[in-house]
Design goal:
This protein is of the alpha+beta class. The protein contains five helices and nine strands, in the order βββααβαβααββββ.
Length: 210
């Protein structure tokens, strides 16, 4: 049996290099708690134990998966968020951040639910706090949601007869130009071969535990 290589989620099998702080990140192969040992992951995340958020999540949509996008919806799965393994207090920290008196926050998916609607297991796998950053609620519910819809619609074309390529996506955070209390969520998209989509930037905040 072939051994799964996590690098398969990265275009050209190349992980990002030179991103600040990622040298102490923990790479997590995202599966479900009830998956049998040896089950291939749905995607890969690099978790930042210093901020208790994901550096990034890497995921892809194959032509076969693209053909099934939209098969399932949010109401078809259990949407309970799972705690990071071995890290206490993250869910409570999110609760406190989301209920702040300042701009309301929400849990922002790195690998979004909408790009995984071809398979309920893949959808459920996205609900882990190792695949999330605190994101301003207005951004998550408006601009970012619109952007995710555009990406999902674009992914469907990767399963068409004229464009049968695998879409590789990487979503992460960046602190460029912001204070220490704020970060950015960014998305880099490459459809391989021979297609490309725009990237986007959104404000989020760092999550802290006691």
């Amino acid at each position: 049996m072939a051994i799964f290589q996590p690098s398969a989620f990265f275009a050209g099998n190349w992980r990002p290099e030179g991103l600040p702080g990622t040298n102490h990140g923990i790479e997590i192969q995202q599966t479900l708690p009830d998956d049998p040992i040896g089950t291939n992951p749905c995607f890969v995340s690099l978790f930042d134990p210093a901020s208790n958020t994901a550096f990034y999540s890497a995921y892809k949509v194959t032509p076969q998966q693209a053909a099934g996008l939209g098969t399932f919806g949010r109401d078809d799965i259990n949407k309970n968020w799972r705690q990071p393994p071995g890290v206490a207090g993250v869910n409570q920290a999110y609760y406190e951040a989301i209920n702040t008196d300042r701009a309301p926050l929400s849990k922002g998916h790195m690998n979004p639910l909408g790009i995984n609607t071809f398979d309920k297991r893949f959808m459920r796998a996205t609900f882990t706090l190792t695949n999330a950053v605190p994101q301003y609620q207005t951004s998550n519910n408006e601009d970012w949601q619109e952007f995710e819809t555009r990406i999902s619609n674009y992914a469907k074309t990767c399963g068409s007869n004229t464009r049968r390529g695998t879409l590789y996506l990487l979503t992460g955070k960046s602190g460029y130009g912001l204070t220490t209390d704020e970060e950015l969520s960014w998305r880099c998209n490459t459809c391989h071969p021979s297609c490309r989509v725009d990237s986007g930037l959104l404000c989020v905040a760092r999550i802290k535990t006691n």
